[in-house]
Amino acid sequence: MEITPGPQPGSSKLSASSPTAPTVDDDSIVKGKETFEDFLPKDWETLSISERIRSVTELYNADIPEGNVKHAALFGSIASVLFRNSVPGSKTGKPLESPHDFGIMLQEWKKCVDNGKEEVIKIVTTGIGYEDDNNGGIFGGMAVAMYRLASQLAAGELSASSLPTTMVFLEEVRRSTGNQKDDSGEEEAETAEVDGKGKAKENVAQSSRDTQDEEKLIQLPFGNVKQEELPDDIEKYLAPLEIGPVDKVPLQVENGKVVEPEVIVTYVPPCPLDESERHPDGHTIWMTKPATKAKYYSNQDWPKPLPKIPCKIVVRPTDDGTGMGVFATRDIKRFEPVLVERPYIVYPRRDVVGAFSKKALQELSEKQLGQLMVKKSEPFFRYMVDQRMTSEERREFMSLANSHTHDGSGPVFGIVRTNGFGIEFRERLPGADRDFGMKMGGYGAVTKIGSRFNHSCIPDVGHGFDASTFTMRFIALRDIKKGSQIFTSYASFNATKAERQKALAPYGFECTCRACVNATPQSDKLRKVSVALTQRWRSQAINVWPKDPNLTEKVLIPILETKRRMEEEGLDTKDAGYFTFPEILFRVYEKVGNIAKLKEAKDELMRAAKGLIQEEEWTTGAKIKFERGKLTGASNN
Ligand SMILES: C[S@@+](CC[C@H](N)C(=O)[O-])C[C@H]1O[C@@H](n2cnc3c(N)ncnc32)[C@H](O)[C@@H]1O
């Protein structure tokens, strides 16, 4: 039994914009290919730009797994060669040296595309490693940026001449690679926001609509919405919805063929609609594509049973007016699993319930479109709660916090917006992440216990989604004392205080955590540069300092000072680059021959490596692979 919405205005656009990925065996694409150029078609040099773009598009749609260095290398190679002859003023004509260069390049391209203008690029950092950062979020997002850019170039919407800053930037990177400077820890570096990382809890504050080839983000309203912002007659823009079991909703037929519904609601694992049978591990109501459902269920043992962990938390009211919170019932160590649960619902975080009608697009402002989307979403989520949850689940779900009571969100969508986590399927084989033309991390999840974690900019737990068990996983990012409240973060770790406040505004509170109370321009900057800085030092520790006969431990002064400041700021996490320090220290002490310190650093390195593997395996359900002694990828298969 499924539900399907009735015909929606513009819904055909939606499907047109969701490319159907051909099934391509990953191994056949990456096998035996070691260098960037190996991924290119043999006749690449003779291809025209539009042919090259077509080739990129095919590779993009082939769904090479995220989390694979070669994936990044693939796009890096293509990107570099694709544009090298088409950028006026570029003399380099060289392929990029690493997927990292490519990553920065794409971020810059994306900025050019987003802002429609050139930016002065100040990034002087080099050598950001990709082994530790090569998760699907980053490269998935970049690949999407790349794909968009290629499409825009192909459609003549963007000219290659708007890209020279990228090349200027790359020149700068190369220059600074060859001209290593001492690090003061104070240099300007920017880390562009990476989309879909899935680490921060995300308010469903944005969604998107399709207008022909272009995708535009719509800001959903929050806070008190003034009456004048709303169209008086918003109802006229709402298409009639037919929601119900598939056998009750009339089939759509086009050219004599039955058109598959665009979106269905199903259970994971399967269970009857009535309340007669429920899975002991819990089940999730999943709003998805029919083909995605079929693909997952074609896997015989899917979903796998939940891993068992001892209970170490309790949900209870806080004593500071923040409603409910999650507390530790015993001491919890860094990297320990804290919670695993099947979400109540998993849903696409974009407007899958029918794109906006032409009339709406022409007549309504962005604000009004946001308001319209809020209105359209409520009946869908209401259906899931009223028709698919047991009475007990419904009662529990409806008791979750709602910070969207004055912005036009209905009672159910308000709860979804307040409690939804952005999730990534992150699978080796093509997964659900790009359903409905979404970017990585397009689905959201509302959970029973996890949604009770309050926010801190110095979070105690991180979270991830494991598609093989269909569970949300939470893990300790630091030691947690018995009895203390456990916080997660709803904002990006690398956002400044002002940016975090903006991201948290829809939740209706001002954060008073240690990082916010003590924030300074220096702490804001540290958040921005921590990843770039630590990776650059790592790169120097690998490539530059071993060759320096005069190296002394003095090189560690800014490094140890930054490490201390990161601990103070609560940036002692993997995402912030903190676990790069043990390796840097190890390499320097090894080089200068400080045996006592070397042993300390080695122990720290081993602890960190073990913990990071545990974290990755727990939050993604993946088995970590090693290549050439390095952590290089994760696979769910
Ligand atoms: C996902 S819920 C967290 C659980 C919630 N406290 C409850 O009672 O279910 C998000 C809401 O909790 C509250 N909240 C979370 N973190 C907070 C914080 N650091 N300070 C104040 N309120 C917070 C806000 O009302 C926010 O909209």
Automatic annotation (TrEMBL):
Gene3D superfamilies noted in UniProt: SET domain
Region (Disordered): 1-28, 175-215
Compositional bias ranges of the Acidic residues kind: 184-193
SMART domains, alphabetized: SET
SET domain residues: 311-491
Residues making up the signal peptide according to the UniProt record: none
Domain of life: Eukaryota
Transmembrane segments: none
InterPro entries: SET_dom (IPR001214), SET_dom_sf (IPR046341), SET_domain_protein (IPR053185)
Compositionally biased region (Polar residues): 9-21
Name used for this protein in its record: SET domain-containing protein
